[in-house]
Amino acid sequence: MIPRYSRPEMVAIWSPETRFRIWFEIEAHACDAMAELGVIPKANAQAVWKAKDATFDVARIDEIEAVTKHDVIAFLTHLAEIVGTDEARFVHQGMTSSDVLDTCLNVQLCRAADLLMAGLDRVCAALKARALEHKDTPRIGRSHGIHAEPTTMGLTFARFYAEMDRNRQRLARAREEVATGAISGAVGTFANIDPHVEEHVCARMGLRPEPISTQVIPRDRHAMFFATLGVIASGIENAATEIRHMQRTEVLEAEEYFSPGQKGSSAMPHKRNPVLTENLTGLARLVRSAVTPALENVTLWHERDISHSSVERAIGPDATVTLDFALHRLAGVIERLVVYPEAMMNNMNRFRGLVMSQRVLLALTQAGVSREDAYRLVQRNAMKVWEQGADFKTELLADPEVTAALPPAEIEEKFDLGYHLKHVDTIFARVFGADHATGGA
Amino acid sequence: MIPRYSRPEMVAIWSPETRFRIWFEIEAHACDAMAELGVIPKANAQAVWKAKDATFDVARIDEIEAVTKHDVIAFLTHLAEIVGTDEARFVHQGMTSSDVLDTCLNVQLCRAADLLMAGLDRVCAALKARALEHKDTPRIGRSHGIHAEPTTMGLTFARFYAEMDRNRQRLARAREEVATGAISGAVGTFANIDPHVEEHVCARMGLRPEPISTQVIPRDRHAMFFATLGVIASGIENAATEIRHMQRTEVLEAEEYFSPGQKGSSAMPHKRNPVLTENLTGLARLVRSAVTPALENVTLWHERDISHSSVERAIGPDATVTLDFALHRLAGVIERLVVYPEAMMNNMNRFRGLVMSQRVLLALTQAGVSREDAYRLVQRNAMKVWEQGADFKTELLADPEVTAALPPAEIEEKFDLGYHLKHVDTIFARVFGADHATGGA
Amino acid sequence: MIPRYSRPEMVAIWSPETRFRIWFEIEAHACDAMAELGVIPKANAQAVWKAKDATFDVARIDEIEAVTKHDVIAFLTHLAEIVGTDEARFVHQGMTSSDVLDTCLNVQLCRAADLLMAGLDRVCAALKARALEHKDTPRIGRSHGIHAEPTTMGLTFARFYAEMDRNRQRLARAREEVATGAISGAVGTFANIDPHVEEHVCARMGLRPEPISTQVIPRDRHAMFFATLGVIASGIENAATEIRHMQRTEVLEAEEYFSPGQKGSSAMPHKRNPVLTENLTGLARLVRSAVTPALENVTLWHERDISHSSVERAIGPDATVTLDFALHRLAGVIERLVVYPEAMMNNMNRFRGLVMSQRVLLALTQAGVSREDAYRLVQRNAMKVWEQGADFKTELLADPEVTAALPPAEIEEKFDLGYHLKHVDTIFARVFGADHATGGA
Amino acid sequence: MIPRYSRPEMVAIWSPETRFRIWFEIEAHACDAMAELGVIPKANAQAVWKAKDATFDVARIDEIEAVTKHDVIAFLTHLAEIVGTDEARFVHQGMTSSDVLDTCLNVQLCRAADLLMAGLDRVCAALKARALEHKDTPRIGRSHGIHAEPTTMGLTFARFYAEMDRNRQRLARAREEVATGAISGAVGTFANIDPHVEEHVCARMGLRPEPISTQVIPRDRHAMFFATLGVIASGIENAATEIRHMQRTEVLEAEEYFSPGQKGSSAMPHKRNPVLTENLTGLARLVRSAVTPALENVTLWHERDISHSSVERAIGPDATVTLDFALHRLAGVIERLVVYPEAMMNNMNRFRGLVMSQRVLLALTQAGVSREDAYRLVQRNAMKVWEQGADFKTELLADPEVTAALPPAEIEEKFDLGYHLKHVDTIFARVFGADHATGGA
């Protein structure tokens, strides 16, 4: 978690203050449930809520932990200082530290998921707006970095939208994975605490009870969560890479937004670097690096070992904070991306019509020219384009052998962009729904 | 993909024969759809089905590919040899190689997922049966490898069941991720082929049309698929590690099945190695190793580059074949695992009752003994157990200061296993449904 | 980088203060070299050293960076505030930001490597001391977690020593990898700066000039560096796992040190958790997680893109700080590990001599008994041990068919531990040198 | 290991035939050493060499293994069939299977390293040749994909040479890591075999004795080996990515070789895809995927568990075969890469001199123009270039305010490529040695 790649909203989820607040809520709700069951006096349960509006003193808790070497005990000691030692004496009864720690972690992951979802929503909204805006902006499609057939800039935005929309669904499921809590005691048997307490606490904290826990909540849930973040991060890299390509000097079909006042832009107007998307590429690597340790965390010895804990202390904040930042950075880039339709058209025409050679070849054979002859005709005109800088269509129209087979109008038709873009609406309807297919921006 | 860690059913999915069969079906269905649209003659579409029962000659196709350097063209050439060059002349019209390759890959992944699901089903069935069998077999729960509180062997099986059941749900979703096909042409615009063809082919092949493809199906789907396999593999390692621990000499609470005739077992009866579960630990690492390259595959340049292809040629078969084998190996281990309830009881009693010290401590304080005194009483009797090998309960019953506070019957009660196991039914009902909670096997 | 898993010495290397100090030194040395070449006035070069003992004001630099959006420019502006704008006007002349950033990063990595080396030295010293101390402490060797043949605790320490000693050599090479600097300008051509400046700066900073750089120092060096940290971390996990096994309740051959005053130890004397080594297992995962992004960083577009930068901002500090902490934690664990030789002997005797069955079998065949008969004789006595708890040697000595072939003295000899440990000295001489082989601690 | 990405030389190293041949040599040399020590009769040792020229029957060994479930025993049985049961009766005496398996694995890895080194040599030779060929071929240097300052194509080749040369050194060290053997018995104590046997076998097999082994050779060595392969693979991706960029339509500064007969090249002359380098990008991911499991393999339980074995059965062949293939594919690409110097010059001139704006700005200030004025002068001429397609130098020469400060000759000088390339020789001398700096190819 690096300050410059962090948004305060997400950082706050992982602050000690938030953690202690969640711990408090878990303990207080647990007391309520125990009081309800008659296990502890109702007055004591009520007393705990005295701390409801208190600010927990992180420095004080650290001080106690320095002595007790135990974070939950340190917190409980501080809580007793607020609530009163006698009133607080039933707090945590029958519970184990992991009941609090694991339930808290999942609350934090759920909140992190909610923020990430908002980031994805923003990315999707930006992609959709730009897709609709450029639905019909022609652009050359490229396979292997080489010109292939025409497509549109809108389709590029739309496919990233579709990917990010899938990521929304994945994130929703990943959130479901970790939306469980456990208050089940030292080895998960509820020996010293009634399962009702778990049910009550989970309901209050927005979680489901973990059907079967040991001392801890099983870590396959968290592995799935972080694996999903890795997939989302890879999607960010995918979009960022497209933009990096578009901005490179020789392509220059789009640029990250450059504020007018930014220095250097006018003396070296070509030197605007896609640093945000390059940065996103790096951030994607960082988020992905959480996946393997999360998978390694799944295996615990017997009812628990604590190897997973240090990993989660790192990747919990790191992966969510970095991904959150990256999503908003990406959204900003897309929202303000400067698109150059004219440059797209220029690039498409770079080889003066050659991208249409396939269609001409097909048309010639369909007009009855043998495959070999058709190939020869296309080739000799293509070579003039390639070697002498001629225009393909002009050459074809001037080649009597070609026009003998294909009337000029048909040749013209082969260079019609509309042929390639006729199903853009269909695709938009699939991606955004029927109402967005034809309207444009 | 290593023969000794492979099952033929899964290997078959990735054979050239299967691949060519799927290619054929895609091409034949595409012809049907084109004929339906009137784009190609119905007779030609029907003619293609002449190859329906043919066996494609892999060696012949390889031979052609050696010349053409293109696998799909080699296949189409061979298909024409079967169907007739003239009849076959409309096959693949308007399509791009990736239409066939990517749709085929997803068919293979879906079939692989189906086999994996069967493996998971078998694992779950085995875990459930053993869980019910040992629902009430007491065993010491361990945190940090150290004795904590009693649990049961059934709960151990049940928690692995719950994890594997989650893995079933994850696999079902992963299958959904890749259950798409695309017949959309060189850059995904349907320039040369009607979207109806895609719909028809997908319906016939059990897939959904990819809403928006480029030249390829987007690779975030595959990333999610392989990430899910990584989570499942980690779950296998989790269960395997538990068994490895149980079988180690000093614990010996269970053993992988050893056939009676297996040599060496009687001269060195202690030397039965948990080699299957150790092997599963290694196989889990292999399956997991597919996750990162699959994530790296998500980013493609523009409408496609082919960097993903070599990766998938490897991890497609490797990860699914290895995981399939591992699931069945794990199922076999669990089905035949030799469980030693007596050894479990002996291990639990290793410290002659000391695991109950916590309950005694609590009982003393609840009986009005001060916390300090209670601690002192427990400690002095615990130390006799620890240092002199005495029995904890016996010592407590013989300590007048203890019995003054706690009547013998109450002391006896603190050593009652039933206290710890009273909620086993509740947990089983959560995991297996209410009907399995009380009945046993 | 998590405070609780950090040592201040390593954290300091990555502080802004240290970074600015290194930047300053690079710039000042560069001015010296330029003055030497006559490119800038000597007075200006000397003036820069006015800042030698200054403390750079991080808040002020941040403030400037908030405006300029450029960290190096912000630093240079602040430097000019200290040195004097006019005096400082030649600072950084002909250089590019990466010249400073990359050279600084490598200085930091070298310093980090030096600290890590000190950590490895401490680990090695501890392992060596404990190896010599327990050179002759017998312990059962285990394959697959199952008793195999006797070894000694000293050999266990010695093999971890040998591994960590290899890690020292690897780290020394990894440090060499990154001990380069570059002052070569915007694309590495020295267009605006003489190569002599690079040589001078590198010599002063303890680095070698990078033979060929672009805008940046090539990242394969850093990849190798972090990959090496991953190997070292895995070695830590290896040692930690051994200790976790030794401490588990049923084995209990050693324990992490527990201070006498630590609460709970006497009421539940069995409940001492190997939390430090479990923690080390998790920390190892974290350090390893830096390896893949470091490998992904190797590929940069043309003369540089900045995707690597965010990755390094994270893994630079994270991996070195975590590994540094882990090395010292491991050293502390080993230095104070409480070893129980008696428990080791008890565990070895758990099957009352059965581990020697192999030697007896061999002796019988060598004495002329047929392989089948020898097996039968061993087996029938082994079974008494296994099933009735008898002592293997006693049974053999009481079996007339056995004693007919092997005189009692020879049977006795087969149970001699010395047979197994006779080459311990040889191995120690290999690992620690001849002088340590026989002396003991 | 995929046939199409394999070279037979490397595949052969991992064949059963080779493995059995190495096993044989280990066993035969061990017998020699034992005979020398007088432990077994010399005649029996000599007899084993009867199998020296035999071909081991893989099918027969498989057949035996199907019964014995043990590969080494199956081999020894077959060996006895060749040598004679009686003559062979001392083979493997005192040894454990891992002695053979681990020593064999390291022999295979050393041989694999030798082949990989040959591949790296070929890559380096190709890079050096092309570097010398294009030492002075000007090309625009790019940071962030954006034009920066001129460099040369030779420098690009030279930096990949330098990286690959480092990879040679790394590979040499990685080979050293695994060039050890162990013949030390069940737990590494040499209980049943004299250390001399190990020394003898290792000397004969080209290995060093492992100073301290357990049942196995420690796996940190293999981790370092595979981590090094991962770094080399990343270097391949780095070079491949450069070529992919050069070949993209808008850049087209170089192309993978296209044989004249290759179809399609003349009708669509622009459609030559960099499929080899894209493929190399994928292969790099595959090789890298071996790193994490190799790191996870380091931790073994006590004196060994067998979790590492299945991993090595896969990554041993897979990573070496794939990397070997990739190195030769890369070498072929570089050897035959079609370089377009004219296109490089055209790209450099794309913005008609604007890349020199920085030098002009500097020259103006050095000529006494204030920083603000100099910037204004450069900017107004730069804008004509950017917006109206003018030529920068022409505009500057026509701007009286500019020429008032800078005489035309000086302006001309600022556009001199020689300024940028003056240190190319220096860099070449650093990379290739002094003799290659000035001579050219």
The chain pair with the largest interface is: A-B, 74 and 74 residues
CATH topology of the largest domain in chain A: Fumarase C, Chain A, domain 2
Query: How much of the residues of chain A is beta strand, in percent?
Result: under 5%
Shape of chain A: elongated
CATH superfamily of the largest domain in chain A: Fumarase/aspartase (Central domain)
Structural class from helices and strands of chain A?
mainly alpha
How far the N terminus sits from the C terminus of chain A, by CA atoms, comes to 38 Å
Oligomerization status of the protein chains: homotetramer
Number of domains of chain A: 3
| Topology of chain A as a string of helices (H) and strands (E) | HHHHHHEEHEHEHEHHHEHHHHHHHH
Structure explained in plain terms:
The structure is a homotetramer of 441-residue chains. Chain A has 441 residues and is mainly alpha-helical. Chain A has three domains: 1-93, Fumarase C, Chain B, domain 1 (Orthogonal Bundle); 96-346, Fumarase/aspartase (Central domain) (Fumarase C, Chain A, domain 2, Up-down Bundle), CATH 1.20.200; 354-414, Ribonucleotide Reductase Protein R1, domain 1. Chain A is 63% helix and 5% strand. Chain A is built from 20 helices and six strands. Chain A has a two-stranded antiparallel ribbon. A two-stranded parallel sheet of chain A has the order 3-4. A two-stranded antiparallel ribbon of chain A has the order 5-6. In chain A, helix 8 (195-205) links the parallel strand 3 (180-181) and strand 4. The radius of gyration of chain A is 31 Å and the shape is elongated. The first copy, chain A, starts with 7 loop residues before the first helix and ends in a 9-residue tail after the last helix. In chain A, 60% of the residues are buried. Chains in contact: A-B, A-C, A-D, B-C, B-D, C-D. At the A-B interface, strand 1, strand 2, helix 7, helix 9 and helix 11 of A face strand 1, strand 2, helix 7, helix 9 and helix 11 of B.
